[in-house]
Please model this.
Amino acid sequence: MRTDPAGPLVAADGVSRSYVLGAARVAAVRDVSLAVRPGEFIALQGPSGSGKSTLLNLLGLLDRPDAGEVRVEGRDGQALSENERSDLRRDRFGFIFQTFNLIPVLTAEENVAYPQVLAGADAAARRERAKELLASVGLDSKADVRPDLLSGGERQRVAIARALANRPAVVFADEPTANLDSRTADDILNLMRRFNEAYSVAFLFATHDPRVVERARRIVRLHDGAIESDVTT
Amino acid sequence: MSAFALAWRSLFRQKRRSLLMIAVVTFGFASFALAGGFIAQSFEALKEGTIRSVGQLQIVDRRAVGRAEEATLEFGIPDAPRARAVAAAQPGVAAVLPRIDFVGLATVGARSIPFLGIGVDPGPEAAATLASGLVVSGKYLSGDGGEGIVLGTGLAKALEVKVGDRVTLLATTPDGSLNAADGVVEGFVDVKIKELNDRYLAAGQKLVENLLQSEGTASKLVVFLRPDADEAKTAAALEKAMAAAGFPVTVLRWEQLATFYGQVKLLYIGIFGFVGAVLVTIVILAAAIVMTMAVTERTREIGTLRALGTRPAGILRMFLAEGVLIALTGCVAGTALALVIRAVLNASGIMLPPPPGASSGTPLHVNFYLLAYVAGLVAMLATMTFAAFFPARRASRVAIVDALTHV
Model:
């Protein structure tokens, strides 16, 4: 269900999330409201513990808020069943992780094709899509290689290709450059920016990396779990 | 990439551990298949031996059911030759053997030993039963038996007789008087049960009728059926035909007569059921440990798969598929192992000790019993699925955020 095409893809409305740490309850995100619109390239910035990853997880339906609501294309994420949330993540979201998180027993092509397997695409279609994506990230020659034989940069390229496999509306990237050297990080960011511009897919980063902030068109700064500033450049 | 394809690849992550688990299933399955084959062979042999001894069906006087005779042939079937002819004419009947049960005293010189006697029609008896195969010295009765008698080895030893010696038989007739007849030892038999060997005596029907002065009366008629005959239907038809011919009899099936068979079967089932339960427990424990380790090691990966849109049931399926694949691989290897061990055991010539009550052992033989292999496969699949279920369920319920940050 896609309601208003001009409306937000994902929106947090007054969300809070806290965790129990030992005997104490720590508020990771406090009463945060944030909307992500089509084609945005947003950096969530802030010091460690400011709630960037927690907010990313809440918006990506990986976690549930203690209070407030997260709406995905108008649908209340809280009201959805676990299966419906899984299906939404599969069809509308892509995820890129700091540690790449590729499936070690699958080849690069199989990793990229995996979300399409979940979506029920036929073998020929998903093979074609995976090859196309691997070519677009410059890894067409490594289609049959398993992740352990790829460099860090190559793994992250495969992860980007995988995130785009089902033509998502939003890609959530949690510190995607943290484990990469400077040059590779630049390449990866340029690649994501290229996809953002070419396909209007929104990117939301949780990052410390100033290079990400430099490229972002919107910078949301978090401090102690609350939005300190939200600037569109 | 189905759950099974992903599961198959996952087995190669920790090769040594997967091999160990497959080895556990392999040995478990092979034990199941071999034990099953051995039990089946034992049951089959016991059933065959029982039927060859007591017959597939027995026709007895209605009064004899559940009661012991106070006098010889008290519940005998009169006009036994005509009754035998009526029974033999029924469809499905292969042979009808008259039997006369009696007790008496065997005397040689100053030695007198009590015996349990059986009067038979020697030719058909030798053809249909194991009687002639039990002869260890001399020969079995032939023709109408004449004066011939066959003794259990224990009785022969106690009487200190050899083949060709004469033995005087003393027995009580149905009217209570004492009668005697001479018999000539034709051979000795080993009936496999020591106590019976010490008392066993078989003689031709004519000699026994002469001794008991009971011409034409039999204690029972033992019936053997054709291989394609339906036991229950033939029993019912026999009872009806015999009643119509004026014989007030009951037809008993072999399982009703062979209480020993039922007891031994229960004993075997108890022993092997216990061993089977131990085997299954070992496999469950080993599999649960292996699957729990797999889930723990792959927690972050589970988080990734869930983040990408895999439903909880998909994670559950993936780990259950691993359990099923381990079971299937183990069962294939276990089949090969069982067949090799079976061939080695059957060729080894190992003799099993005599079972309780028996006087001689039998060579070890393990049958290929398909049902045991199928049951082994089902047991291993069920065991592995059960063992994998709880770790798999835990994996499917793990919080995605916790899983993604798992170290």
The longest strand of chain A covers residues 24-36. Residues 182-199 of chain A form the longest helix (18 residues). The domain at 10-232 of chain A is CATH 3.40.50.300 (Rossmann fold).
